[in-house]
Amino acid sequence: MPVLAKSRRSGSRGEPEKTRAAILSAALEEFAQEGDSGARTDEIARRAGVNKALIYYYFKDKEGLYAAALEQVFSGLHERVMSILNRTDMAPREKLLLYVQTHFDYIASQPVYPRLVQREFMRNAGRTLSPVANRILEHYGKPLYQKLEELVRDGIRSGAFRKVDPVQSITSILGTIIFYFITIPAQQIMRTGDPTSPERIAERRAAVLDFVSSALFATDDAVNQKGKS
Amino acid sequence: MPVLAKSRRSGSRGEPEKTRAAILSAALEEFAQEGDSGARTDEIARRAGVNKALIYYYFKDKEGLYAAALEQVFSGLHERVMSILNRTDMAPREKLLLYVQTHFDYIASQPVYPRLVQREFMRNAGRTLSPVANRILEHYGKPLYQKLEELVRDGIRSGAFRKVDPVQSITSILGTIIFYFITIPAQQIMRTGDPTSPERIAERRAAVLDFVSSALFATDDAVNQKGKS
DNA sequence: GCGTGATAATTAAACGGACGGTTAATTCAA
DNA sequence: TTGAATTAACCGTCCGTTTAATTATCACGC
């Protein structure tokens, strides 16, 4: 990490931004592992190697820290994925496959992400999500779903995709991509070996692409002429 | 929902089993909603309409209650699903579709189930699951995966299924079935309307069957469905 | 260059409420 | 009378949050 010559702004010892980042990183792990309420501020501070009070110095309170953690993972995904979905130079099939790969790879590169996210989206107090999750979904989730829906419609219109319900198929695709990662702890029992090893991840990646392709793509133009039951 | 069966005077012999069941039921909701550590024993007692001490009277401690809750949902699924997977009078395609329907319907009938389960399987303290989840998976998860794997192999061997990796495709299928339910809170924001309404559930059910069928079944011109194997 | 405040970064310690769990007393069917 | 079922009240601890003190760095006048 290059020491920024100029950004030695002010303060006392250490680098404030580095400290902040350390806290955030520790929080990501702890939140993903234990969940919102299960995460302990003491443990986060310990992991980050800083005093607990710094959490409240940099992020107002536990919820503020939580929001920052969610924001970080989501903005990263959003950036990568949307740049693909906004492209206009690709046919639906290639575009969808590239999207799936990108989404998959992002999750695989941030093993902490899926559990963090999934946890949050399962937690509906009564009937509504937490304000934090709500904001995240409005900001990142909706545009993603919208673009994906558009893509699927394009694919269907052009005959590249089967005539599926766009929204439903998106849910299925997301499930196929994400499910493996959120069940990794369970898979350590169900199967032998390490589900997070590069080989296993590669194996899963290929399987996801195959599964989605087969589920969504029309089986060659000629074949889909025959009526379906 | 709070069935205050005040019929019996509460004092000593109300109905013990009814009380126990009330606690368990309340626990299921609370655990599913708030998670293991998020759930509050006071709240569970309140929902069940009983004194908090009864939780410790019937179930040793919070973890005992949690284990009982997991046990209940899993045994119910196990019972329904295994009876299908053990049948020998069905061709792979029908068997798999029936399995998917049954699994789906069970979840749909117990909206509390998927979040409860998913929560648990995401929580790996360090490197291993909780002892409770471990036991559940050994007892219910492994046999299920095993039977499903067998089924997929049969399907491939008979030519009814594409030549997929059995284990990977099972993960994909499970993801397709379950993902909708564990993201219901999020879907209340992403789409309009109630994702838990019968119409929506039916719509999702059809989509799952379609998605899985298309992903897994061989699209051979030759419909070599020979009925029994 | 050199004290000298000012301020940002960091810490130790403690507070107060929440929450899991306990206990001793009470009720009521058999 | 016995004992299972139930309750109110309590306890100790964990944990999020606050506060006050401390350390280091910078700005600046001298």
Description:
Two copies of one chain form a homodimer. Chain A has 229 residues and is an all-alpha fold. Chain A folds into two domains: 16-59, Homeodomain-like (Arc Repressor Mutant, subunit A); 66-220, Tetracycline Repressor, domain 2. Chain A has ten helices and two strands; from the N terminus they run H-H-H-H-H-H-E-E-H-H-H-H. The first copy, chain A, starts with 15 loop residues before the first helix and ends in a 13-residue tail after the last helix. At the A-B interface, helix 6, strand 1, strand 2, helix 7 and helix 8 of A face helix 6, strand 1, strand 2, helix 7 and helix 8 of B. The structure holds a DNA duplex (30 and 30 nucleotides).
Structural class of chain A: mainly alpha
Major sheet summary line of chain A = 2 strands, antiparallel
Q: Give helix % range of chain A.
A: 55-70%
Average the pLDDT over all residues of chain A and give the rounded result: 87
Total number of β-strand segments of chain A?
2
CATH architecture of the largest domain in chain A: Orthogonal Bundle
* Residue windows where pLDDT falls under 50 for at least 5 positions of chain A: 1-10, 221-229
Residue fraction in strands of chain A: under 5%
CATH topology of the largest domain in chain A: Tetracycline Repressor, domain 2
Sum up the overall morphology of chain A in one term: globular
Give the helix tally of chain A: 10
Overall tally of structural domains of chain A: 2
What's the SSE pattern of chain A? HHHHHHEEHHHH
* Termini gap of chain A: 61 Å
Per CATH, the superfamily of the largest domain in chain A is Tetracycline Repressor, domain 2
Any idea what the radius of gyration of chain A is? Answer: 21 Å
Quaternary structure state of the chains depicted = homodimer
